[in-house]
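fyi for ur records
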Amino acid sequence: MYRNYWIIFSIILIGICGLFILDYSTGAVQGAIFDQIPYNYTSDVWLPPISPESGSIAGYYSIYGKGKDFNFKVDLPGAQFFDLHEINGTQVCYDEKGLSGQGHLNFIKINYNTVSALLSKDLKRAMFSTEFSGNYTMKCAAWNGNGNFSNNGQNFSGTFIIIGPATDWVGNFTLAEENKRIKIISSYIYYPHAQKTSENTKKINNNIFYI
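which gave:
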């Protein structure tokens, strides 16, 4: 089950982590002009193993759209074989269709550190240096979800809701840099689908993931 949680959080955050690049090609162009500019960005993804017994997962993510409205997709070929839970023959967490979603940037502000990091091809540093906020919806395998995200240049955080055929999750996350990895600290509750009561709700505090 931990492996499935890790895949869920990883594919959500891979999509979110690419959003800051949407304004890169516009430079100082803002407002109505930016809203008319189309874009399409694709990059490789590699998720390291979480234990000596597990393997890594490779794939790609893409972000495409126009202005502040975007679509994103995460494909991790082979990841479906890590999802061993099925309901009526349908994989619960991840399948070969990958994750797809839509979102909207409410705000984005490019600064000197953003440009410097992008010129150095350090996308991770650029992401953490850029101020932005937005919201998103998504779907993957047998679940769907939504949430919001924001980075004020010092703190990168967000919320999520995942509605699954067997289990629902509601929580928040914070992203931080740790060496060459992105550290994800998440607190959330989960309960049987559409059956949220004090008796069957479980809470997880400060669960840590890495991508």
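Confidence is low (pLDDT under 50) at residues 19-30. thats all i got for now
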